[in-house]
Structures are given as structure tokens and as C-alpha cells.
Amino acid sequence: MDRSDALAIVKKQLTDHRYQHTIGVMNTAIELAEKYQGDVKKSELAAIFHDYAKFRPKEEMKQIIIEQKMPSELLTFNSELWHAPVGAYLVETEVGIKDEEVLNAIKYHTSGRIKMTKLERIIYLADYIEPNRHFPGVEEVREIAQTDLNAALIQSIRNTILFLVKKNQPIFPETFLTYNSLLIEQG
Ligand code: DGI
Ligand code: FE
Ligand code: FE
Ligand code: FE
User: Fold this and answer.
1) pLDDT tens sequence across 27-65
2) Which of 111, 142, 137, 116 has its CA nearest to residue 35?
3) 110 CB under 6 A from ligand 1?
4) Which of 56, 111, 124, 127 has its CA 20 to 30 A from that of 118?
5) Helices marked H in the chain
6) CA 101–ligand 3 middle distance (angstroms)
7) Cα of 109 to ligand 4 centre, how many Å?
8) How does pLDDT run across 65-78, given as a tens digit for each residue?
């Protein structure tokens, strides 16, 4: 599937604001893939579809999580986490994308996971640092991303955890596992 077909499909699923974010993630993911010897085409495709399910009704997402036997623990955490695994499922079943690496990059773009692939790292980080993002600390992560993919990824997950702690929100175990595994891997 080429870029314009993919963008036309995803545009129908998103608000204008979320579509602009998607374009930012796409451009950033391509830059990161070029810099860190990732797969540029897969990075482009995963970025375009990463937030495909962002505006699906909660009830629909909940039903998919149950029927597809996704971890039921997801349901006890913030519903903001649901669009990532549900998105991977819908991109496969509705759009017809079969590439497991691309689907996994969509599936894990919010929580991360242990032993993330390079493509998963690129999409997680691109989602965090794309130019339309304005969280506190994002500029520092953009700087680190110029020279060190993993260090930038760790800093973005640290910021996300700190943000959730400050908001008194429960943190999904996979998010902690991701953070720990990246620190341990770094040595
Ligand atoms: O979909 P985006 O806004 O582009 O970004 P995202 O998919 O990375 O994150 C969506 C939301 O999920 C964001 O507001 C923070 C939240 N989130 C990420 N990790 C966790 C989390 N929420 C909880 N409760 N626990 C987490 O571990
Ligand atoms: Fe998302
Ligand atoms: Fe993210
Ligand atoms: Fe996103």
C-alpha cells in the first residue's frame, strides 16, 4: 500500500488535529529510521496507522479486547491504553495489513514491551517527539534523539511515568516492564 492510499484510509478515522499528529509521527519515524538504520517503509506504514482506533467507542474497544482474548487487565486500566492493541487488530482485519512487525509496532506504541524491536522503538519515540507535541521535557528528548535512540526512548518513558504519577493515575505494568528492561539493557 502506498503512502497516499494509507493516509486517505486513516484520515477518515481521525479528527483533523489527530491527522496532523499522524503526519508528524510519519515524518519523524522516517527520519529516525534513516538515522538508526530502521526499515523506512515499515516505519512509515506503522506511523500512519498507529492511532487508527483512537476514536472508536469505548464499548466497541472493550468488546474486541474480550472477544480477541487480549489481556483483560487492560480493562482495569485507563481506556487510553486500549486503542493500541485494538488498533493493531483493526488495521489487520479492516485495512488488511498483515505485516507482524508493523502490527506489533501499532500494538505496543502506548505501553512499549520488553525486548522491543527497532521498529517498535522508532514508533514509540516518534509518537512522543513529533513536532506537534508540546509536553514538558519533550525538547530534551528531541535533543537526545539526535544521537541516541535508546536513551531518548528511556527518557520519554520516564517522562510518561512521571506525568502519570503526578496525575495520580495507575501505571500499566507493561509500562514499568518496558522502562526496567530498557534500563537493564543499557547496563
Ligand atoms: O495516542 P497518543 O495520544 O498519540 O499517545 P499514546 O498512545 O502514547 O498515549 C495515550 C495515552 O495513554 C496518554 O494520555 C498517556 C496514557 N498512558 C500511557 N501509558 C500509560 C497510560 N495511562 C496509564 N494509566 N498507564 C500507563 O502505563
Ligand atoms: Fe496512540
Ligand atoms: Fe506514546
Ligand atoms: Fe499517537
Assistant:
1) 999 999 999 999 999 999 999 999 999 999 999 999 999
2) 142
3) yes
4) 56
5) 3-11, 16-35, 40-49, 58-67, 83-90, 100-107, 118-129, 138-145, 149-166, 173-186
6) 17
7) 8
8) 999 999 999 999 99
ipTM: 0.93
Q: Which of 80, 116, 158 to mutate to test the pocket of ligand 1 (most atoms within 8 A of CB)?
A: 80
Total domain count for the chain? 1
* Domain with 164 in it: 3-186
pLDDT value at position 187?
84
What CATH number does the domain containing 70 carry?
Answer: 1.10.3210.10
Ligand 4 centre and the CA of 126: distance in Å? 9
Grid coordinates given for 104: 506489533
Nearest CA to ligand 1 atom 16: 80
Average the pLDDT over 121-134 and give the result. 98
Average pLDDT, the chain: 97
